[in-house]
Amino acid sequence: MADTLEFNEIYQEVKGSMNDGRLRLSRQGVIFKNSKTGKVDNIQASELAEGVWRRVALGHGLKLLTKNGHVYKYDGFRESEFDKLSDFFKAHYRLELAEKDLCVKGWNWGTVRFGGQLLSFDIGEQPVFEIPLSNVSQCTTGKNEVTLEFHQNDDAEVSLMEVRFYVPPTQEDGVDPVEAFAQNVLSKADVIQATGDAICIFRELQCLTPRGRYDIRIYPTFLHLHGKTFDYKIPYTTVLRLFLLPHKDQRQMFFVISLDPPIKQGQTRYHFLILLFSKDEDISLTLNMNEEEVEKRFEGRLTKNMSGSLYEMVSRVMKALVNRKITVPGNFQGHSGAQCITCSYKASSGLLYPLERGFIYVHKPPVHIRFDEISFVNFARGTTTTRSFDFEIETKQGTQYTFSSIEREEYGKLFDFVNAKKLNIKNRGLKEGMKQSYDEYADSDEDQHDAYLERMKEEGKIREENANDSSDGSGEETDESFNPGEEDDDVAEEFDSNASASSSSGDGDSDRDEKKPAKKAKILKDRKPRKKQLESKKGKDPNAPKRPMSAYMLWLNASRERIKSDHPGISITDLSKKAGELWKAMSKEKKEEWDRKAEDARKDYEKAMKEYSVGSKSESSRAEKSKKKKKKQEKQMKVKAEKKGASSKSSSSTKSPAKSASESFKSKEFVSSDESSSAESKKEDSEDEGAASPPPSSEDSASGSD
């Protein structure tokens, strides 16, 4: 028999809400990890007292009772998994997994039994319903009546808020059944009552969310925030995590308390309590307990008298009472040396802290993202200026967070951090070696098929192939790659040459005039490659071979009609989901068959591409030869035309002096200097233009000698 059993998509019932997650049963005990909050429930095998299997709304459920009275409910099992679970419980926990069905008679009278933190309403031996007493917020009594009020469930559209029980009077003297019922409920209910004195009080602390100044009173089981307008009581059981984060100015500290369920004020929910401290503030603290009680309760973590920085005292007390570790920034250091990055989220500016196991943004609104729930991250170009960039995070649930206006100098540090944590980076496609190495039981989608993820992988491979082809084909650099850390050397040289030219041309030029040409040159340089890129995209060859499809897409094309016939009227999105489920459930042997087909298609594509590239090169060389030949012919025609024009011009110029001499004769004294100069220029032109012009006649030579 296997030492462990794992179940996905299991739902845990907590405070009336169903939280999905993953369940693992091992020899050591039972572990459930909540997908939403990342909280882990660990039940040791030695603590298990009883296991019950029953039919519930979400299939079948498992109810576990511990020796200290706690009850854990897990729903979402299939009926066929009962035998496997029953054998596992017998072999490793030495428990019989009992089958108990709920009573569905519809009767409204029966017997109430209190077992641990559970109120069970039974008819005979069968339970009708069960109420976890931790869900009860208030219990009031009347004549023969007990009223239970419940905490509001924010995740559900409709919540059960009140149940009333009629308690018939009994003949026993001295025992009031109504009061006895109410005391049993109140002993286990989640009713916060400020009984006794506070352990310590911190006065007038600055709180960012909820905003204001509050007195914080520390009680043994809860935290009381007392402000001028509002009061909040926070049980320590609702605290998920504690964070201590240094501000970028190195003079202040954030203390962040993560809450689930959140505190409420009207329709507003506060999932984080954020306190802001100055590092210079000191305090001397005395606990309202004697030294023996302090030693017994806190085991050396706290002492009766303490002194130090205010933020240290608050964090130390909270750590001891909540019994959780405080998360601080890891080894990340930004460009300025700080452990955070200045950025904007939504409409407000704040600080993003890269932690060892996630990211946290403070403060408005606060966001905490764990690495194990991140699908991929993306580095995007800033929308308003090239001096900044955006950092995008998309979770496995499809939620997207965009942190904008990050300084360009932070790019290298943040990229190295993301790379070291082995997060998938969308810009360069999903790499095979970038598997996340977290806790072995952290949430991951490695075993779940996602059609969109397959398409993203395929597109990433194609982008890389295109990038390699373009780099081999041409040496020109396009504007596609985004490397904010690299400086533009060409622009700097243009700026220097413009500055020297402007200074040498005139002394009156100012520095402002010198900088303008450099800016224009940079804009032009950025724009030109984009135009070339757009032209190359528009001029795509329709005769080029089509890229091959992946194994999944080949299978989907072959199976699409069959899925449609099996599920008539199915929409496109539902069809893709159904196809993903079928592909996930397909055996390895069948998948290998489609993998072979995809490999054959890829080889055919590569062969066709080689033939196409050779053909395109020969065609281009032939086109270039024909162009050169055409240019040569045009040049020869032009030379012939020039020679013909020159000969006709020279013949006309030799005839005109003879004609003028026969018509009228002028002596040398009457020839003006202008006419002589023009005649000389004409003569020079005629001598330059044609060596083939006929020699002058005897009449012309005689007139010239005269």
Automatic annotation (TrEMBL):
<keyword id="KW-0805">Transcription regulation</keyword>
<dbReference type="GO" id="GO:0035101">
    <property type="term" value="C:FACT complex"/>
</dbReference>
<keyword id="KW-0238">DNA-binding</keyword>
<dbReference type="GO" id="GO:0006281">
    <property type="term" value="P:DNA repair"/>
</dbReference>
<keyword id="KW-0804">Transcription</keyword>
<dbReference type="InterPro" id="IPR038167">
    <property type="entry name" value="SSRP1_sf"/>
</dbReference>
<dbReference type="GO" id="GO:0003677">
    <property type="term" value="F:DNA binding"/>
</dbReference>
<dbReference type="Pfam" id="PF17292">
    <property type="entry name" value="POB3_N"/>
</dbReference>
<keyword id="KW-0158">Chromosome</keyword>
<dbReference type="InterPro" id="IPR009071">
    <property type="entry name" value="HMG_box_dom"/>
</dbReference>
<keyword id="KW-0234">DNA repair</keyword>
<feature type="compositionally biased region" description="Low complexity">
    <location>
        <begin position="647"/>
        <end position="664"/>
    </location>
</feature>
<feature type="domain" description="HMG box">
    <location>
        <begin position="545"/>
        <end position="613"/>
    </location>
</feature>
<dbReference type="InterPro" id="IPR048985">
    <property type="entry name" value="SSRP1_C"/>
</dbReference>
<dbReference type="InterPro" id="IPR024954">
    <property type="entry name" value="SSRP1_DD"/>
</dbReference>
<protein>
    <recommendedName>
        <fullName>FACT complex subunit SSRP1</fullName>
    </recommendedName>
</protein>
<dbReference type="GO" id="GO:0005730">
    <property type="term" value="C:nucleolus"/>
</dbReference>
<dbReference type="Pfam" id="PF00505">
    <property type="entry name" value="HMG_box"/>
</dbReference>
<dbReference type="Pfam" id="PF21103">
    <property type="entry name" value="PH1_SSRP1-like"/>
</dbReference>
<comment type="function">
    <text>Component of the FACT complex, a general chromatin factor that acts to reorganize nucleosomes. The FACT complex is involved in multiple processes that require DNA as a template such as mRNA elongation, DNA replication and DNA repair. During transcription elongation the FACT complex acts as a histone chaperone that both destabilizes and restores nucleosomal structure.</text>
</comment>
<dbReference type="InterPro" id="IPR000969">
    <property type="entry name" value="SSRP1/POB3"/>
</dbReference>
<dbReference type="GO" id="GO:1902275">
    <property type="term" value="P:regulation of chromatin organization"/>
</dbReference>
<dbReference type="Pfam" id="PF03531">
    <property type="entry name" value="SSrecog"/>
</dbReference>
<keyword id="KW-0539">Nucleus</keyword>
<dbReference type="InterPro" id="IPR036910">
    <property type="entry name" value="HMG_box_dom_sf"/>
</dbReference>
<feature type="region of interest" description="Disordered">
    <location>
        <begin position="610"/>
        <end position="706"/>
    </location>
</feature>
<dbReference type="InterPro" id="IPR050454">
    <property type="entry name" value="RTT106/SSRP1_HistChap/FACT"/>
</dbReference>
<keyword id="KW-0235">DNA replication</keyword>
<dbReference type="InterPro" id="IPR048993">
    <property type="entry name" value="SSRP1-like_PH1"/>
</dbReference>
<feature type="compositionally biased region" description="Acidic residues">
    <location>
        <begin position="474"/>
        <end position="496"/>
    </location>
</feature>
<feature type="compositionally biased region" description="Low complexity">
    <location>
        <begin position="497"/>
        <end position="507"/>
    </location>
</feature>
<feature type="compositionally biased region" description="Basic and acidic residues">
    <location>
        <begin position="634"/>
        <end position="645"/>
    </location>
</feature>
<keyword id="KW-0227">DNA damage</keyword>
<dbReference type="InterPro" id="IPR035417">
    <property type="entry name" value="SSRP1/POB3_N"/>
</dbReference>
<feature type="compositionally biased region" description="Basic and acidic residues">
    <location>
        <begin position="532"/>
        <end position="544"/>
    </location>
</feature>
<dbReference type="Pfam" id="PF21092">
    <property type="entry name" value="SSRP1_C"/>
</dbReference>
<dbReference type="InterPro" id="IPR013719">
    <property type="entry name" value="RTT106/SPT16-like_middle_dom"/>
</dbReference>
<feature type="DNA-binding region" description="HMG box">
    <location>
        <begin position="545"/>
        <end position="613"/>
    </location>
</feature>
<dbReference type="Pfam" id="PF08512">
    <property type="entry name" value="Rttp106-like_middle"/>
</dbReference>
<dbReference type="GO" id="GO:0042393">
    <property type="term" value="F:histone binding"/>
</dbReference>
<dbReference type="InterPro" id="IPR011993">
    <property type="entry name" value="PH-like_dom_sf"/>
</dbReference>
<dbReference type="GO" id="GO:0006260">
    <property type="term" value="P:DNA replication"/>
</dbReference>
